[in-house]
């Protein structure tokens, strides 16, 4: 199955395929919903999306999971070195890093701006030192790099016909991230972090100390509902951007939109009890979204073709 993806993407070099496989496996293991959505793309586009996920996931592991014995300063230095090496590799056109080899190929194939990756690495570095955000504007600096640029990196691969698609992709990336923040309040507290703006919590009579008690109150419910309203507004604003993508790419993003923003609905389903339960989109809902989307995606590929994926980009 995966061989077909590489054939349609025009990727034939064994070392390059091995790197894309590392990225695909990271995606399949750590981003199951995201991975499910990628299966709705034309096969020849999937490896590139897996590569972008692999880059983000590996950087995140440096920050959170790589080695608990490392200090934050040591992690920051490791992240800086890895990021600098990646930037150098992109400019030189090749990489020996098992993850970055595929990412460099993807960046050069689709002419993805490097400043998106610089912003992402900046936000990952922020995560090592910043444990709370006073305002949404302060939080947005982090969210732009951690989420909005992920959407921006994706857009060239999805082949928009209108530049507004980039702005809408930012909206959707931010909505995804905020939905995760709402769901993960308890887990983030375990990591010493609060991603809900403190001034907005204060409007509802909630402090960080209140969250740390991990007891749901009417005030916390109201504060979470306020954040869900923002997710839904960004979700609505992003929808028009999906129609600006190549027809064979639309169902992938639409399915991801429904499933990720649907996390907010699941928080409501558990009555905002984010301290004792984890909001999850049910498997049956994923199937109800994914199966008809898969049928539409197949039909779109037959009518419009897969986009720029076949025989147009030899390995370098």
What does this structure look like?
The protein is mostly helical and 316 residues long. It folds into 2 domains: 1-129, Farnesyl Diphosphate Synthase (Orthogonal Bundle), CATH 1.10.600; 132-305, Farnesyl Diphosphate Synthase, CATH 1.10.600. Helix content is 72%, strand content 0%. It has 15 helices and no strands. It has helices spanning 2-9, 14-30, 32-38, 46-64, 72-92, 100-110, 114-126, 136-158, 164-183, 185-190, 198-203, 208-213, 218-242, 247-269, 283-304. The radius of gyration is 20 Å and the shape is globular. The two termini are 24 Å apart.
What brief labels describe this structure?
316 residues; Farnesyl Diphosphate Synthase; 15 helices; 2 domains; mainly alpha; disordered C terminus
Describe the global form. Answer: globular
Order of helices and strands: HHHHHHHHHHHHHHH
Whole-angstrom Rg: 20 Å
- What summary fits the major beta sheet? none
Q: Kindly state the number of beta strands.
A: 0
